[in-house]
Amino acid sequence: MAQVGRRTFLLATGAFLARPPARAQQPALPVVGLLNGTSYGLSKHLVRPFNQGLSGTGYAEGRNVAIK
């Protein structure tokens, strides 16, 4: 078995320890696009049932779905 020099060992160990820690990736949030030709104030009566429908299927804006 070949011997590893002290310097080579220290450089390899230092390079390994200097790596940033691995981070778990956050799952992507589903995005729902809501297109409407009127202002939000005029379409509140449509947006409220839309959000209630999402809630009925287990989705909540800001928690597990984004509405743009």
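The above is record 1. Record 2 follows with the same two-line structure.
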Amino acid sequence: MSVKQERLAYLLGALYGDGSFSSKRIFFGATDKEFVQKVANLIDDLFRIKLKIRVQKLSLKNPKWRDYYKLNSKKLYKHLNKYNPKTVEILPKFIKDGNSKVKALFIKGFFDAEGNVDVRSVKRKDGRTDIIRHLKCFSNNVELLQEIKQLLYFLNIKSEIFRGKGKNYYVCIWNYKGLQKFNTNIGFIIQRKQRALNNALNSYKEIQTRWDFQTYDMVLKLRKQKKIGAEKIKRKLLKKNLNIPKPTIEAWIYGRTKITANKMEV
């Protein structure tokens, strides 16, 4: 695959997320200026079309409302209409048949557009509190999300599709292994999203130092002898009055954190 196809893969991912093909124009916009500038630069690089980024002030009173940066082009439509998701197959053939980098760059563009990192505490019925870390991307187009799920699977990233509000659906990546692989192989251009992903990954490491070698050794023996996953191990430990967070158990059984009798290694 050529560098041009790699750049086009990212551009289409961004346009499929925050863009639209209508009235023989391509419209694109987002609240992150660096993201819109990246897209404008790619358009210039690929098609020699220089576009002006316009700013829409969303609110002068509410600081939570952010400015919106947008661009549109008839010339770009002529170049990319063959990739219009409304009139052709969901994903272009060069992306479906592309190498890992092409697939990753398409996903990167789409997640820059529609992705977010959700880290929050959830209280269970038994009073315990769990921290969930979810990486999601949203769309009303379920078929497109199914294609993205397959691309993620090709990159060894497990995900599932869930129903959101109304007609909205989302692809969700939820465990450390998936988040880490996404971070290493895909990542975000948008810095606030990349920082959120880094913080989610770092929050796993913050809980690894609370347990001694004997507890760690017990978990590994359960894993080896019973051949069970983190959730079942957690339930067995609760019967012994050991309430160990599931992410900690995952870090131990998957070898991301190792504890010896003398020290811990992350």
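The longest strand covers residues 129-139.
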